[in-house]
Amino acid sequence: ASGPGPAPVRDLVDRAEAQAERAVGIVARIEALFTTGEIRAEPADLNDVVADAVGIALEAAGPPVTVTRAFAPGLPPLPLDRLLIQQLIDNLLRNARAALAGHADPRLAIRTEAAARGARIVVEDNGPGVPEALRDRLFDPFVQGAEQGGGLGIGLAISASVVAAHGGTIAFAPVPTGGARFTVTLPAAR
Fold first, then answer.
1. Residue 64 has what pLDDT?
2. How many angstroms separate the CA atoms of 104 and 100, rounded?
3. Residue 164, by phi and psi: left (phi above 0), alpha (psi -120 to 50) or beta?
4. CB–CB of 48/119 below 8 Å?
5. Handedness of CA 5, 9, 14, 18 (dihedral sign)
6. pTM for the whole structure
7. pLDDT tens track of the chain, all 190 residues?
């Protein structure tokens, strides 16, 4: 893909091409997930997968946000479909960034933690939180985005399907000081 032209332009084109290839791969994986229920899980270091996903998600345009990362050392390898888990994290981070738009001091935290027989990913923001009326339907398709005036409202539904295909769970909890916390628990073996 690299060709003639100034280095910054080549780098931009290379990154755009890599993102396009990644998007095609994600669409194919999501299609396979919904048609066959299959994922391509291979042993992976959750911290590496999360770090890559955070880097990709934060490259996307959006309001400036202070991001805190905390990755637990010594997590067991997990059977993960790397692209699907990255898409899950991307969905959670995009939702958090959208919720933080216009916030005077937008903060976002992502961490990994050890869990009984696996590990957790926790994404937390200090935004307005999720309206109580949506909480019971948060992971249903076509709910959240449409009611908040943006998106298709399928990101959290896809995220829940990705987590379920990995044998894990995803949960929402309001943050007592304001904001939202999503906790994804993934098993070390399915």
1. 80
2. 9
3. alpha
4. no
5. negative
6. 0.79
7. 555 567 777 766 766 676 666 666 666 666 656 676 678 889 999 999 999 889 877 777 666 888 999 999 999 999 999 888 998 998 899 888 888 888 889 999 999 999 998 999 999 999 988 888 888 888 887 665 433 444 445 678 888 988 999 999 999 999 988 899 999 999 997 6
DSSP 7-22: HHHHHHHHHHHHHHHH
Q: Which tokens is 63 given?
A: 């309001």
Position 123 scores a pLDDT of 96
Neighbour count for residue 2 (Cβ, 10 Å): 10
The strand pairing partners of 124, in sequence order, are 109, 181
Residues 163 and 185: their CA atoms lie apart, in Å, by 8
- The answer to whether the CB of 34 falls within 8 A of the CB of 100 is no
Return the sign of the alpha-carbon dihedral for residues 116, 121, 123, 129.
negative
Residues 6+ apart with CB under 8 A from 50: 71, 89, 110, 112, 121
Q: Which residues contact 35 (CB under 8 A, 6 or more apart)?
A: none
End-to-end CA distance of the chain: 38
Cβ atoms of 80 and 122 within 8 Å: the answer is no
Contact call for residues 74 and 66 (beta carbons, < 8 A): no
